[in-house]
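for the writeup, i need someone to sanity check this before i put it in the appendix. the sequnce is what the collaborator sent (i think, or maybe the updated version? ugh). structure was predicted straight from it, no edits. if anything looks off just tell me and ill rerun, i have time this weekend
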Amino acid sequence: MQAMTGDHPDTHPRKLYRLTRKGIRASAEDWAHPQRVLYPQIGDMLFEDYLKAKAQGPKYYRRKGVRFLRPFTAGQFLRDYLLGLGPEDSPKINPEEGDYGERIFFYYKEALRRAYARDAVAWENEQRLQKKETSYAPEEYAERLKWHLDRIPYKLHRARFHSFHNYIYYLKALGWVEATGREEESYLQSPEYPKAPPRRYYRLSEKGKSAPEHEWYRPQLTLYPEFTPQYFAQKNMERRRVSG
């Protein structure tokens, strides 16, 4: 992915693996459930007891009308990123040079992972304080943060590039971003489809810089104010009525 696309410089290189002596000697039962070997206990409970308790415990269902919120929207991230602010520890770019969509999307997803990891460590700290324990020291905090980041998958949040590409369309329609004029050969062009669109760099326009922050929260609603939550609720109701 690094060499072919150029869009994901921080992705891991291709690594070749082989069995260790310990892996060769491991039993078939251990290979059938390696997670039980790695985590024989979850907290104070044996792994088997933990699974039984989870199976018998109350199931979590998403309540009707409740939505899961991200720590920041794609619009907010795009604005701060193109301003060169480096939101959520992403790179601080030159606002005049801008950047292209695929790379912005990659850093947006990485920013979501970092925010999720910080929330996880904050929750652990709250649990420690409730047990009358001291909160994490800076070194412990950094270690726990890395522990979570190593385990949070890139696709944890259901953000897809197609949706992100739509955001850029909204911003262009609003006149909030403009092409810098810099273009490069895109990954799609190089192997099979030379007529595909090139990689284009965008930056904030003066109109985008002066737009109120609350309009950046949901730029699609700024562009289409008639598409309110009530509008979509009515459409969903009509769709269910027809299908039922």
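The chain has a mean pLDDT of 82. The CA atoms of residues 80 and 148 lie 25 Å apart.
thx in advance!!
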